[in-house]
Write a structure and sequence with these properties.
This protein has 326 residues and is of the alpha/beta class. The protein contains 13 helices and 12 strands. It has 3 domains: 78 residues, Arc Repressor Mutant, subunit A; 100 residues, D-Maltodextrin-Binding Protein, domain 2 (3-Layer(aba) Sandwich); 101 residues, 3-Layer(aba) Sandwich (D-Maltodextrin-Binding Protein, domain 2). The strands form 3 sheets. Strands 4-3-5-12-6 form a 5-stranded mixed sheet, sandwiched between helices. Strands 9-8-10-7-11 form a 5-stranded mixed sheet. A two-stranded antiparallel sheet has the order 1-2. Helix 10 links the parallel strand 8 and strand 9. The longest helix has 28 residues.
């Protein structure tokens, strides 16, 4: 934690279940949730509009009641302890129904329309998601939207852990806990400037791309797993590559004119539409498409505000032309 009083806490043993129930209905659980969400005392205090010292005191009280530390300090950052992970997982399930009920009641009163928590892969976050949110905001100006831009694998993790309501990303085989409500298959190809040597190739292959300066995603970006076998198959020894962990960097490298970047058209959508870049799908035999989807938790009904956003997003994507979509 940012500040932590030097005391002999937490206690050696937890309080009785009766006393613990009183603690769990105090602000300490609310404050704990805020700190666990943002992993920062100061940010939790800012979101709760209270003093940092009050947050520190309430979390310390909860640790004392449980008899175990809920947070671990790593240099200047916090992370949840194993006990904190367990409590956070269950606390979200305890507080979510009440938060949803209050949100829907306030919506009926016309005060606000609740909150929607979204996780999106970077390519989605820098292409059509801002337009979608802007369009939605014009229709529902009282909605609070919380957007996290993370790798596609983390989009799924956050959905499964109930940290977000709706996910936008790429997924080949969804786990059983996830439903893909909207899907579109997109070809993998190369983006480059119109005057690039590869721009005139209508049947572009990975081998031809490797004969030119090439930029590719690092393994933490989902597309790398798909293209890796084709990179290896096309060259016994790979030539020098530029490897980056950002879709936006792939776009910027392509805009420079020297490199072609391997990616789907999502992430370069605006540049392709404006004619600053061209997209050429790879024609390698057996190269799969990359499946884009809007994802939700399987078997879980969305609360009112996320459900309204979800319906708006599906309608939006039904009419959206994605470059190269199959």
């Amino acid at each position: 934690m940012d500040q932590r009083p030097q005391t002999d806490r937490p206690r050696e043993h937890a309080l009785s279940s009766g006393l613990l129930s009183r603690v769990f209905h105090q602000p300490s659980l609310i404050y704990f949730n805020a700190v666990a969400t943002h992993l920062s005392i100061r940010e939790a205090a800012r979101r709760l509009n209270i003093a940092s010292s009050a947050v520190t005191r309430q979390v310390a009280q909860l640790e004392d009641a449980l008899g175990i530390a809920l947070f671990l300090r790593e240099k200047r950052r916090l992370r949840l302890s194993p006990a904190g992970e367990i409590l956070f997982r269950h606390a979200r399930r305890l507080t979510a129904p009440m938060e949803a009920a209050v949100s829907e009641i306030e919506m009926l009163r016309g005060l606000r329309s609740g909150s929607v928590r979204i996780a999106a892969a970077e390519s989605v976050g820098i292409s059509f998601l801002p337009r979608l949110i802007t369009d939605f905001g014009r229709h529902y100006p009282r909605l609070n939207i919380d957007v996290s831009v993370v790798p596609s694998t983390e989009v799924i993790e956050r959905l499964v852990d109930e940290r977000v309501d709706i996910g936008f990303g790429f997924i080949a085989k969804p786990p059983r806990q996830i439903d893909i409500a909207f899907r579109r298959d997109l070809p993998i190809g190369a983006v480059m400037t119109p005057d690039h040597p590869l721009a005139g190739r209508r049947n572009l292959t990975m081998q031809q791309c490797l004969e030119q300066p090439l930029a590719v995603a690092k393994p933490e970006i989902s597309i790398r797993e798909v293209i890796e076998p084709f990179l290896r198959r096309s060259a016994t020894i790979l030539p020098p590559l530029v490897e980056v962990d950002s879709i936006r960097m792939l776009v910027e490298l392509a805009l420079g004119g020297h490199y072609a970047s391997i990616m789907t058209p999502i992430g370069a959508q605006g540049e392709v539409e404006a004619g600053r870049l061209v997209f050429r799908p790879l024609q390698d035999s057996g190269l799969p498409t990359n499946r884009f989807g809007i994802m939700v938790r399987a078997g879980a009904a969305l609360h009112l505000a996320p459900a309204i956003f979800f319906d708006h997003a599906k309608t939006y994507f039904d009419t959206l032309i994605l470059p190269g979509a199959i």
